[in-house]
Amino acid sequence: MTTPEPYGLDPVTEVLEIPSPRRLRRVHLAVAGVSALAGAAAVVAVLLLTGWREVPVNQYEVRVFFTDEATAAQKETVRAALDDLPFDGDGRLLTREEALVLMRKVYADRGTPLPDTIKADSVAEMAVVATSGRYLDCAPLSSLKDRPGVRAFHVFQARDETVLIAVEQC
Amino acid sequence: MLAGGTVALGVLLLAGWRHVPVHRYEINVMLAVEATTAQRDAARVVLDRVPANQGVTVVTREQALERVRKLMADEGKTTMLDGVKAEVLPESLKVSATGRDFDCSTVSALHGYAGVKSVRVARTHGGNGSLAELDCS
To answer: The EF-hand domain covers which part of the protein (chain A) (predicted)?
Structure first.
């Protein structure tokens, strides 16, 4: 005579339906994996909706153009100011001849030759400094235009060192 | 879920993802003085295809002259334009668009179009308001 089982369950069947610890681990791992994927998807969706995108690293070159009357001391002061900027490169001065070579390169990159009428005498001396980054903060540059001997400055933004993307008016 | 989100954020940051504001782009196509109506319309078709554009505007020769007059008036040089007729000035096309990026290929073909003298794309930064001229040559 056997004792009746509580709730009328068959003990053999009940034992068979309990998942093994190994199977339970798999289920937990699957749930964790799906949750992680859902979390990752949610983060990507939120970032996309709030305007996040991949921003490539660009090369920037700040070119400061001097007036014809700029003195050597004024040029050196500007070069030193460029040196003090939180940029990768060092500030350097370009003679008219070097500036002409740079201008020729700019024109060549655009596929148009520099007009023959432009000679070294008609190009301004300049100070340049280069850096790279995803963005360029214009704020540290704002004081450049007020320095004596400075006519103007532009920030050239390029990609892959050759392709000019934009000229920023900081 | 939290771990997945954190990992995804870390990977995206390392891959160069940053917040990109919506910029405003102004495309200005200067036509040649002798450009025909058909050439102008052909250029207009290209500008119509710029994504998220707010409509192409044709600046007529008369409007161009009026604009130059205003600029000269601001400098007190109105007499320099006495006798100048609108016919000597070119028409131009303008279009504004907004976006986080600008695909230059949508307008670069215009450089080879007959009757098109120049194409300029200016960007007003959506974050700090700074101006830049894009090189879409």
So the answer is: 73-109
